[in-house]
Amino acid sequence: MAELGEQPDTAPVRQLLDRFVDAGALHPEHERAPFSATDVTVVIPAYGQVPRELPAGVDVIVVDDASPSPLTLQHPQDVAPGLRQTLLRHDTNRGPAAARNTGLAQVTTALVAFVDTDVHLGDGWLEPLLAHFADERVALVAPRVASANGATWLARYEVRHSPLDLGPEPARIAPGTRVSYVPSAALLCRTDAVRAIGGFDEGMRLGEDVDLVWRMAAAHRCRYEPSSVVHHEPRSTVTALLQQRFGYGRSASSLARRHPNALAPVRMSGWSALSWLLIVTRHPLVGIGVAGGTTVALQRKLSDVPGAESARLAALGHLAAGRQFANATTRVWWPLALIAVALSRRARWTVIAALVAPVLIDSARSRTLRPVVDAPLAAVEQMAYGAGVWAGVVAERELGPLRPDFTNWPPRNGE
What is the pLDDT of residues 292-306, one digit of tens each? Predict the structure, then answer.
């Protein structure tokens, strides 16, 4: 467990620490792993190609999802004694969820790792993940999935902006938190836990990995461990990158139907939303007044916290809400924003601010012009994701990915 000094090992202390861990305020550190590499089977769904290098030191099951030309394993003779490399094949293409489930059915080890063909694991990737299973409540651990370095400008862009790279800080994994999902590019799970929830949903061709992670998070602890870093191959062309982002957006409606409210484009206090709405509709003094009222309310609620600190927290909350609105405007709501721009000069300046302000803030924080240079492709990338969201909304008739989630409004009906 993360160090807190010498604390008595009593039930109340353990309960308190558990609450901090579940809230994401503490991140556990375990000295010993109860499992080793021999307790792990890596399942790799494949279509068209197998990895150039299969992971070493573990059992491996590759599932060929009906590739046009049947796949073969290149170097099965290199397997260490006692380990196995197995190749299975589907007669028809059933999608990555079904391929993973086919591999899962053959796993005999306590742990199963799901790894994509375009992910390079490298040395030392497994040990930091295994340590988390010292906590019997942990059922899923994910490494940091960084984009592999490349010689092209697009590869370098992906290093900075890959949606699979969730950053250098450890976290719990749960919808609505800082790390709300992890991709199945690389996951390590308790085999029995994955089987208990039915494995991957074979009815989903996109988003099946996020769906599995959220179902696991509803039943168990799930951890993000960035000290383990694996590398994902970047897209080779801008078209491929935009197609990938469109696909991610396209999966949002299916996920929203299965996990209501988990994909709200903004999630914030209703008072913060009202403040920003008043500001963008040219009532800045009223908007600032609403924000000031929430600051006073927070100071009363946090009576033991100095007033200056309460004011700082309130200001940061309102600024974060503004950033969320800006991101949603240029990412998910951009078709509506485009209509508004065509109809209203006032909306035109609001949308320009939503595009420009976050870039300038990021540039000032990083003290480089890199965010400015990246901004055009980043904007197109976000629009591709948003276009995918709208395509999914129309196909699924599910508005969940478009609806904001506002909290902290005055209670109704005496609640």
Answer: 888 777 777 777 767
